[in-house]
């Protein structure tokens, strides 16, 4: 095809074969300008970029993907190479325009000038703005419009990972590259002082549109340092993260900063096949190695005092029993009815976690998990210190979470209340609701859109599909059980297994979450890789369970 246009084509054995410096030097003896025309599939683009950076004088001809992607060949395959393009654009004039658009990665020109008076030689350098922007694109720098569609962000794309960068990051990277490549001091000095590297000029970088959706109605993706995991109703599928996953992009800040290794199932939940209700679900604990799971188990031990205190006269015997049943929801000290109630509370908790971590939003399920204490004190007030908030806050390691204080009953009257929420926010925790918090002010927010009104920035709206899911905690008994509230709420209860001893109660000791684990859970630096991996496996298994029961259109709630 190139020969038919009057060119002198040269090709290697394959598109992945490397052009050696020796061969490049030999070709350069016979050509004033060398073009490379790579295929525009993933392999062709990767190899084309590598060749352009290796030999900056080469002009790369990038075939127009927006044109070729609209057509397929006679075998139904997407068109991707020069022959495909020439079948669509066969004239010599079209080919000339194609070559005219090609650019080299070499963005600098150097020459020497001789002073006619004193004979001194001065080295000069200039920067080509168009080639500089092209070079930065080859280095995977682009612009990306923010959610409002107005502000322009600088980003760097590495495979599927997208990193938000500053114009200063781009300048530093370019200068580091120039130094590593051994460019003359004059070139590097010109780069330092060049206005072409200002934020204003860099906004001319090629703009890209990226899809960061990490879910479908029936699946959810999680990203780790070494792998991506797709969770479906019946499976967890691990994919090599170094291999590009088509059309799946993730912000660097959203990657779980630990490696992933698949573990066996940690629980098995069964239920009646015929229109099951919450009480029809039963759980079997298979592998209690996740600390987060252990915490949830103990926070669901509603009858811990009957099991571990009241039936013992000998305190030593009570301690021995507690030690041997440290993370047990079905100890022999419980009745079948008590075990069933505690199981139901744990299954409800697993259901909540799965629901919250599945980013897909259904208009028929505009739910907000609502966690309260099971033990009621005087004046209908629940006891705090039971570890409610930790259940939700722990999920910040697996999705972006924003916390709002619920103590201020007028918090949503502030027009800027949502300024920290982005399209990437997965969960909003309204923590520690006041006793008289008016739930109705959240109705439209939970089941509708959210207006993002940041200070000194024009407001914009996130539609229902792009808004986060909401969850709440409270130390008080809900006052509103009207149909509008109940329809939007998944209720959950937390036992007083974790509690504080005081003169106002009859607890025999103080017990916190840290006491059970000899330290804080999920704390970077003190939490082992095995612990992180176990917790990650557990929460993804929660998502798998939720997806498996989602078609039943059921809310699994505890006995209230």
How would you characterize the overall build of this protein?
With 560 residues, the chain is of the alpha/beta class. The protein is 30% helix and 19% strand. The strands form seven sheets. It has a five-stranded parallel β-sheet. Strands 6-7-8-13 form a four-stranded mixed β-sheet. Strands 9-10-11-12 form a four-stranded antiparallel β-sheet, with helices on one face. Strand 7 and strand 8 form a beta hairpin. Helix 13 crosses helix 18. It is elongated, with a radius of gyration of 31 Å. The mean pLDDT is 91.
SSE diagram, text form:
Layout: H1 21-28, E1 35-36, H2 42-54, E2 59-60, H3 65-68, H4 82-88, H5 92-100, E3 103-104, E4 108-114, E5 121-127, H6 129-138, E6 141-145, E7 152-158, E8 161-165, H7 167-180, H8 185-193, H9 199-202, E9 215-216, E10 219-223, E11 227-232, E12 235-240, E13 250-251, E14 267-270, E15 282-285, H10 291-299, H11 304-310, H12 315-324, H13 336-357, E16 368-373, H14 388-393, E17 400-405, E18 425-433, H15 443-447, E19 450-452, E20 460-462, E21 469-474, H16 483-487, E22 489-494, H17 513-517, H18 529-549
Parallel strand pairs: 1-2, 8-13, 16-21, 16-22, 17-18, 18-21
Antiparallel strand pairs: 2-3, 4-5, 6-7, 7-8, 9-10, 10-11, 11-12, 14-15, 19-20
Helix pairs in contact: 7-8, 13-18
Keywords:
560 residues, alpha/beta, 22 strands
Shape: elongated
Counting DSSP H or I runs of 4 or more residues, the number of helices is 18
Mean pLDDT: 91
Spatial ordering of strands, largest sheet: 17-18-21-16-22
State which percent range the strand residues make up: 15-25%
Total beta strands: 22
Terminal CA distance reads 75 Å
Question: What class do helices, strands and sheet pairing give?
Answer: alpha/beta
Contiguous low-pLDDT stretches (5 residues minimum) are none
Helical residue percent band? 25-40%
Task: Please outline the major beta sheet.
Answer: 5 strands, parallel
Radius of gyration: 31 Å
